[in-house]
Hints:
Blueprint: H1 2-50, E1 54-59, H2 68-72, E2 82-86, H3 93-108, E3 115-120, H4 129-144, E4 148-153, E5 161-164, E6 168-172, E7 201-207
Parallel strand pairs: 2-3, 3-4
Antiparallel strand pairs: 1-7, 2-5, 5-6, 6-7
Helix pairs in contact: 3-4
Amino acid sequence: xxxxxxxxxxxxxxxxxxxxxxxxxxxxxxxxxxxxxxxxxxxxxxxxxxxxxxxxxxxxxxxxxxxxxxxxxxxxxxxxxxxxxxxxxxxxxxxxxxxxxxxxxxxxxxxxxxxxxxxxxxxxxxxxxxxxxxxxxxxxxxxxxxxxxxxxxxxxxxxxxxxxxxxxxxxxxxxxxxxxxxxxxxxxxxxxxxxxxxxxxxxxxxxxxxxxxx
Length: 214
């Protein structure tokens, strides 16, 4: 009985030492991870300060989970008040609905966007009355929500770009028109664009302190 007691007592300090050693090891690892995270954050902030920040998101063919909310929300801080959209293809019905959804996303966000600038082109090959009447209706509807839509047309615009006045610039290869056509009015993804399949495209994200002067 005494021998068992001696063995038991002598074992406790060894286990305690091992546990303390493990705790110290894990504490050091966690501290290392936190220090690394702070270094990465500082590096990203410096790149943003220097106007050199660049991130690319690749949307694969038939991918889902890329609604406007999912794509743009990480860059919509509380400082966001003004947005510039340059997209030559806000012409046809589905493209006009895409822009409407984009505007609705801005209205629902926690930031207080007060003005949206849209620069697009008119379709010379078709009757542009649908485009102009739809955008006029949207402008009036947004105004009732306290949001101004500044609409301009260009016959030479080609590139697609979205700029936020908090410094973020998002360039989507296909502009806002990267969703595939729905498979039916009662198919999954008809209403919820997180479930809608996408065309393959790249999204390039930059940051600059001088967005308004671009």
